[in-house]
Sequence to fold (271 residues):
Amino acid sequence: MEITNNLAPEFNIKGLFKAFGSNRVLQGVSLDIAQGELVAIVGGSGCGKTVLLNHILGQVEADQGDVLVADHGRDLAPMVDLSQLGTAEMDQLHTHWGVVFQANALFSGSVLDNIHLWLDEIKHLDDAQILDIAKRSLTSVVLPTNDEFLGTDVNDLSGGMAKRLAVARALSMSPNVIFYDEPTTGLDPTSAGQIQDLILTTHEQGNRGGQSLTTLIITHDKDLLIRLKPRTIMLHDGQIFFDGPFKDFAKSISPIIRPYFDRMPVLHTGS
Ligand SMILES: Nc1ncnc2c1ncn2[C@@H]1O[C@H](COP(=O)(O)OP(=O)(O)O)[C@@H](O)[C@H]1O
Ligand SMILES: [Mg+2]
Fold:
């Protein structure tokens, strides 16, 4: 765990409340994340991890509270309040973020189509530039770059390969921040281990512009925590119950943390 006190902020989340009817999911979540941090958000199924992520992505409006995010588009820009942004500004902000959704959210079509779309529509690159970036992104997630693979229909990829493609697609945007929602859930143990390693090396390598990457992982995978040793944040009863280094989380004797940690699914048997 790095000391992050003097790093620039990435997110300042202040007093978030969110209910769906009588289901009070977030009940005062405040959280600061600095640029370059590797952070995991954990907590039982249905505790609000994805809801929190959706607030950070600006896809859900809070009942109360604020999400301020760093503006990577401009040097020395102040933090931006998501609730104040129009669609165009939000789109601009999103060009600096890569998201690997829980279900990958690949588009129907080929491997190359999936990397092509955002680079074309958001970054306005030409086909030759896109092909070059596609090959480099695929290489960094250890996928093939030959024409046959580029033309493969994504429905024909295995779960592990589809997940890697989703990571490659996120990386192709040279993001400053990368979000993963349950990146190893549903994968076989070998693929899960490979994705864990990929998340770590991706974080350590930073983005293609040579800047550090902020990595936020929502996970329910104990082995991922053991392997990556992230700053660990546990949501419980709508609030942050724990926030600290993984090693402290793992040895906690809290009656909330201990049983949760002991029962966390082990997706990967380790090697
Ligand atoms: N759009 C929605 N409408 C109603 N309830 C929702 C919605 N999104 C999430 N919820 C509820 O909020 C709670 C937290 O969900 P979620 O954040 O997806 O959990 P998890 O921690 O497993 O990611 C669950 O009870 C879920 O049913
Ligand atoms: Mg979820």
